[in-house]
Amino acid sequence: MLQEANLDVAFANYPQVNGQLDEVFSPDRKIKKHYERVFNHLSQFSLQEFRDLNEYAKKSSFDQGITFNVYSDKAQGVERIFPFDLFPRVIPAKEWEHIEKGLIQRNRALNLFLQDIYNEKKILKDDIVPKELIFSSKNYSKEMVDFVPYGGVYAHISGTDVIRHSDGEYYVLEDNIRVPSGVSYVLSNRMATKRILSNLFFESAVQPVVDYSEALSQVLKSVAPQGVEEPVCVVLTPGVYNSAYYEHSLLAMLMGMQLVEGRDLFVDKNFVYMKTIHGPQKVDVIYRRIDDVFIDPLVFRPDSVLGIPGLMAAYREGNVVLANAPGTGVADDKAVYTYVPEIIRYYLAEEPILKNVTTYRCDREDDFKYVMENLDKLVVKPVDESGGYGIFIGSRAPAEEREKFREIVKAQRRKYIAQPVMSLSTHATFIEESGGFEPRHIDLRTFSLTGLNKEYVCKGGLTRVALRRGELVVNSSQGGGSKDTWVLQD
């Protein structure tokens, strides 16, 4: 019976789709060399044994509180387990070296870009990036004008989404440098595979990810205000009802820092203090997991109960550091994304290591005309959304729906960009409904850190899986899952 057969038998009918790059199998259905050890080990399990391991992983996630909340029209605040697949994604050392160099290059350029557009504005004066594009971004913060954070670092934590196309090349799909999330799943996925597949893991020479929290701690301390020898750093969370609260609490615990809410902090004479049972304690660095508009009701939204009144004044006085800096979101605006190759050339005098996906800006006349004429072949995205919300895939929408969406884009052209449908690589994934392995599209959210004379890239990342057959949107909020990502040592 199939249920009693080993997994190698289950792979005998593994479907391959023409024109798509499968990470595990070559076009002639042979296992790629860097997957041989993993495949041979997993093939020893029967389907039932693998199901049992899969169930154990799910139960373990639930017991640890590794969940996320869904905020959509159909499900308001529904808490779910983030689906985890035990078959890890494997990246050879040479491929990872290319990705890592590209990420470091990109982060350097974006930090220089942020410093420039809030101060001298050279790139705008030189007409490399249109000034109207920057000043019309809802994430451009006037409160950051003529101010440079300590060390010149704006984006201390970056979450860059990378895909692999059918041509075998890696592309950056988007930058996330406002309040990037997801690294807790990287750490928890690794803990799960080390516990469940311990022999395989320790035989496979996998680069560690456990050092992320220590690297983050060092980066935060490195940007503390000048003269502070033993900085007090805290993690600022909106609270237990936030979709990423598990991550906030895990990182605070791993770094040995206090997890605080806005009500735990106050500002006095432009210094920030934390309330403790021993009295006020001065805070030097705040790793904020709260959006810009909520961090200070005296400057941004006056109805915010999540932030700290007076925080921006203390920040601009140099008495406290915020990571990431307010206003960084202007650099992950998906319309600004189209200029990142030029931004890299302008500030670093280098060619981009990682390519952008071809992108059309709907506020440009030629691009807009092309998008309107080819809506059935494109993916349209709002420039300021995340989590996979607002994405319109033209090829999957009926003609009537496309016509309605055309009118939406026409009314708000600055808000939308369009990209060709990228053929994301696929990976063998265990599908509970079918009881076997099937190819599913994946991407990779990478995590990079930048401090004062410090740069770090987590050697792995969050491989996100679109669990529905043929689906291209991998976000957890859209029903996606995840895999552990194994970067092999050289």
Automatic annotation (TrEMBL):
It comes from the Bacteria. Transmembrane segments: none annotated. Residues 88-466 form the Circularly permuted ATP-grasp type domain. It holds the Pfam family CP_ATPgrasp_2. InterPro entries: ATP-dep_Glu-Cys_Ligase-2, CP_ATPgrasp_2, UCP005522. PANTHER family: BLR5612 PROTEIN, SLL1039 PROTEIN. This is Uncharacterized conserved protein, circularly permuted ATPgrasp superfamily. It comes from Catalinimonas alkaloidigena. The lineage of its organism: Bacteria, Pseudomonadati, Bacteroidota, Cytophagia, Cytophagales.
